[in-house]
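hiii so um. not sure if this is the right channel but i have a protein structure encoded as tokens and i wanna go backwards to a sequence. like what aa goes where. can anyone help
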């Protein structure tokens, strides 16, 4: 049995939504957690807020079933917004590793779903979806009349093309780590020969033949091998942008999308110019998402240390972010400072199959020598959260507060001696991907572990160079962006064999525990299940992860609707500028 959730049938909620409503009524689920779950099972965000007894924010309301935030005041049409942000190449969206590249692309390519800053997911290219009672079969109904920039209509075959691309192991898309995509895969023998000719055949994960069904031009069904609640949320992970079937990298050479803008100019490291799509083959282009107010979006690659100066002079109207060390200057400027609590973090992670990290005692010794709680006030004195080496943030709805880790220098020294590593010397690779705070964290760790007899060298690398080696270096300091769920971050980074598993960690017990936690609605039971997930990862000592950082940005007072998204996603469909 399944129930289609459309505007006509919204009074018939999915059984999981009713279960969540009951849990909310009994105080076992927060109202905001209920809203998230109800929306995931197909209810409109506005209806979910009403059932929860909360006023719906602007971005939970719609005009004509359009999911974007309603513009405030009286929006003015026209104008150019100029944003300071690193300008990157736009090659293949399915293998993007940078939010910045996805922001350049996000106004051209779109997604099946769209998660707003309140952690509620709305339909985007999909108009609605339904899910079976057991959460293993998801059916998405595409909007009719959505046009590509070459005039073609978006159809279900185009979505299937994208999913099949993501699941090609040769592509190496991080989407393979998403719970919803992983549940459509099967393990098969590879055509490639293993290096050891006498060993067992090499095995890879591929899309099951029955996993994707095109029902008709506007309906596509996904059949999963296990229950997954977060499918729609997964479809706004930034590498899941939907490309046209004619796509061949680099995307910048032939930027066909369904969004309101197209690429006019790209000079990597300098500027990215996007312009409104006005017509196709001399016919007016009618964007499905309703009114769009900006004429152009300009991204300028302004050096981080001069972005606020450029903002003060009026050369740019907003910036992607500024560092906490620049807060005093930002407060002196005439602009709107936006601060967002996030699950963005820095992982000083060990590759567990590389020496000396193959010895769990060495990893545990390094972790014991660190004082996680002492780091946050030294780096972000005003806000942020402490991390406890399991990559689940206090702002994640499923977070379980494990006992705080206590620094244990004697224990660290004893473990090093037991492992024969009393004079351990290691080097961590650190790329300053969004300011100096990452280097600062590495320096704090260096000074802390020194007291246990560990010599930590820091290899400061240019950002681009670090991202060339981040998955290969035995010891690296990698920044991870915000994900709306801790389970999503864990699936992308720590499941056995997924492309972004930079630690090479593989623990079947962890994988099974994560599978179980992903399907539980009851907040208390889910947190109890997450206790096991977090503890397994923490005990296996695969990283020092001490800080969940806040994000600071600033926009001109003439800019309206500039987003403060914890993932730093730019969605400018309803942004407008006074001129």
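sure thing!! here u go:
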């Amino acid at each position: 049995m399944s129930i289609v959730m459309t505007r006509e049938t919204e009074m018939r909620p999915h059984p999981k939504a009713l279960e969540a409503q009951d849990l909310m009524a009994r105080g076992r689920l927060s109202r905001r957690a209920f809203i998230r779950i109800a929306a995931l099972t197909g209810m409109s965000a506005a209806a979910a807020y009403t059932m929860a007894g909360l006023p719906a924010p602007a971005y939970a309301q719609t005009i004509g079933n359009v999911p974007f935030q309603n513009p405030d005041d009286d929006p003015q049409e026209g104008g150019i917004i100029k944003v300071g942000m690193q300008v990157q190449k736009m090659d293949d969206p399915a293998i993007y590793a940078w939010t910045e590249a996805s922001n350049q692309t996000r106004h051209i390519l779109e997604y099946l779903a769209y998660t707003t800053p309140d952690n509620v997911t709305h339909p985007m290219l999909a108009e609605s979806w339904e899910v079976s009672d057991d959460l293993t079969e998801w059916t998405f109904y595409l909007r009719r009349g959505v046009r590509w920039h070459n005039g073609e209509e978006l159809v279900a075959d185009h979505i299937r093309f994208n999913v099949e691309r993501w699941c090609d192991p040769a592509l190496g898309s991080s989407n393979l780590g998403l719970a919803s995509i992983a549940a459509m895969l099967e393990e098969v023998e590879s055509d490639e020969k293993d290096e050891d000719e006498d060993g067992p055949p090499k095995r890879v994960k591929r899309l099951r033949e029955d996993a994707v069904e095109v029902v008709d031009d506007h309906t596509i069904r996904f059949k999963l091998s296990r229950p997954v609640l977060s499918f729609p949320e997964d479809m706004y992970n930034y590498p899941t942008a939907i490309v046209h079937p004619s796509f061949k990298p680099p995307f910048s050479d032939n930027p066909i999308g369904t969004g309101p803008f197209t690429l006019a100019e790209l000079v990597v490291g300098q500027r990215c110019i996007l312009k409104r799509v006005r017509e196709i083959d001399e016919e007016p282009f009618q964007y499905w998402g309703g009114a769009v107010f900006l004429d152009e979006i300009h991204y300028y690659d302004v050096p981080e240390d001069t972005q606020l100066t450029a903002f003060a002079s009026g050369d740019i109207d907003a910036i992607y972010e500024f560092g906490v060390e620049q807060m005093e200057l930002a407060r002196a400027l005439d602009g709107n400072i936006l601060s967002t609590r996030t699950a963005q973090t820095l992982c000083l992670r060990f590759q567990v199959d590389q020496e000396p990290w193959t010895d769990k005692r060495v990893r545990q010794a390094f972790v014991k020598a660190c004082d996680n709680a002492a780091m946050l006030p030294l780096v972000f004195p005003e806000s942020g959260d402490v991390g406890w080496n399991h990559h689940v943030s206090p702002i994640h709805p499923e977070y379980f507060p494990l006992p705080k880790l206590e620094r244990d220098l004697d224990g660290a020294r004893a473990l090093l001696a037991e492992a024969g590593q009393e004079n351990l010397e290691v080097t961590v690779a650190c790329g300053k991907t969004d300011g100096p705070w990452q280097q600062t964290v590495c320096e704090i760790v260096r000074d802390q572990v020194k007291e246990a007899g560990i010599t930590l060298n820091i290899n400061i690398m240019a950002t681009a160079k670090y991202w060339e080696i981040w998955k290969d270096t035995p010891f690296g300091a990698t920044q991870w962006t915000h994900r709306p769920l801790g389970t999503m971050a864990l699936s992308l980074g720590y499941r056995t064999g997924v492309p972004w598993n930079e630690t090479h960690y593989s623990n079947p017990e962890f994988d099974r525990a994560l599978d179980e936690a992903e399907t539980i609605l009851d907040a208390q039971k889910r947190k109890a299940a997450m206790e096991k997930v977090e503890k397994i990862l923490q005990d296996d000592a695969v990283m020092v992860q001490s800080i969940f950082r806040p994000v600071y940005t600033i926009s001109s007072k003439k800019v309206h609707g500039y987003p403060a998204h914890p993932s730093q996603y730019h969605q400018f469909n309803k942004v407008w500028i006074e001129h």
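oh and Residues 1-11 have pLDDT under 50 and may be disordered.
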